[in-house]
Amino acid sequence: MGTPPQHSRLRPLPPPRYHAGMSKIINLRMARKQATRAAARKQADEAAAKHGRSKSERQQNQAATAKARAHLDAHMRTREE
Question: Would the pTM of this model clear 0.70, i.e. be above it?
């Protein structure tokens, strides 16, 4: 156990070259893509809130559809051969 060996080739990274008053350098292409993704995510969330249904509403609709289908199938006329 002990301290790991110090290699002359492995040096710590220098501190960032901006001061407290300077802004950070950003990649504009990546910033535009992130803004586009955020706008699309916001639009999708709004659409889901507007048109989405809760789980109980979907189950209720499925039950009503199954009941209507069973009612129609019960009254179906069959061909006698």
Answer: no
